[in-house]
Amino acid sequence: MRAYLFAFCVLACGCADDPAPAPAQSDACLSVDPGPSPIRRMTRFEYNNTVRDLLGDTTSPAAGFGAEEEALGFNNNAANLVTSSTLAEKYMLAAEGISARVTEKLSRILPCDPAHIGEEPCAREFIDRFGARAYRRPLAPGEADMLYAVFAYGRTIHDFREGIRMVIEAALQSPHFLYRVEFGAPNRPSDGIVRLNNWEIASRLSYLLWGTMPDDELFAAAEAGLLQTRKEISAQARRMLDDPKARDVTLEFHRQWLDYDRIASATKDPVLFPTWSSDLKNAMKKETERFIDAVIFEESGDLGALLTASYSYLSPELAEFYGVTPPSGSGFERVELDPGERAGLLTMGSLLTINAHSNQTSPVHRGKLVREAFLCDIMPPPPPDAVIVVPEPDPDSTARERFAEHSKNPACAGCHQLMDPLGFGFENYDPIGRFRAEENGAPIDASGNIVDSDINGEFIGAVELAHKLTGSEDVRGCYTKQWFRYASGRGETRADDCSMAVLKERFKATGGNIKELLVALTQTDAFLYRKAGGAQ
Known about the structure:
With 536 residues, the chain is mainly α. It is built from 24 helices and eleven strands.
């Protein structure tokens, strides 16, 4: 039977055309160009969310699929989401398991009672409804018939339940479930641009803002043809950002962008840092997530607050670590921090810890974080013949003195002059992120310098650096670019110049409001259109 289902899953398919949004009209960008348009496969995050919302399965079956390969800092880059034979087998096994679990009690998933209206009519009603939700568009007549043939086979060899189970198993292996297959309608016959139809826009909205399939309201809007104008799409985006699922996506984006998950495997010298523990690591991660979530959805909502807020959300344990008065409750509550010591994400224990060595700080890693994550620079690897030697801790010197040797090596100086002077500004924070004024009895020199940016100049300490970054057009542009990469599943190209310009202008006009940036993403050519002929 597996061979039968596999053959079913690779059949070609189609979907109906709908009118689509009009092209963007601005002085600089009068023609539509969506840039490259790769077909998008679900990530593990999206797969788990989708089977939860489609069938109520909360077992996170995609955990066994294996990690996606990252590109440009994110794991949803379409070029890397290749379905190997191993992954195809895991999809098959997951489909078998999910279909078996959800059909244990058929009344939870059936829209009808087969004993009342008959097995065939009930099966067809289920197939029409389930198939449309699984494929995120109405089924074509041939598709419904194929799924019914699967049901009929299962019914013949066993019973009604087995027929329904096999329909679910087959649908979960279909390219129309695993991929966002988009056909749309021609924009103009000669330009090779495809306007996405209402159902395709609904899926783009739901996977961008929720990381899952559309809800009933989005499906209803698509069916009514109410996802054709930018105004209609914007209204849906704003509604969706008020849903808790939007919080999951913003956390997923920031988790990948800043890579703070690495704290789970961060090790520190137990002699130097006896308080370092799994509980402390978990608390640091939760602080970062609670802070990001609160800034975007409960506080001012802007990038500046992410970078410069002098408050955080701490547990009693973490408050003790930071040396501040603990919150009254046992959970993570808003706590004011010393504005001379802490400012937003860059001075949080999680980011400081993962960008340090086990027994000393790392100006290189901390400077590289700023360069790559916040300025979108790409730091090349060391020369092939370079001998990488991390200086050993020395009680008679500071980390700044030890790492300054990089700038004296001609083979290393070029890149390290971009990173190290930034990283030296973080020397007030030890390898686990505690604030310090001295190292080995010597006063900390936290002076730094930033070059090759729109905010070149000297600064003292990470707090001052954070405030400089907040005023940077380069930083706002980089944050916009990072979201574009995540939203599009690819890197930006020259064809995206107009879309990027509109996004940057909107982000600046709204004071760096992150939710407004997400709405703006849904208004770009890259979101509303695609190139004809599949991945390009």
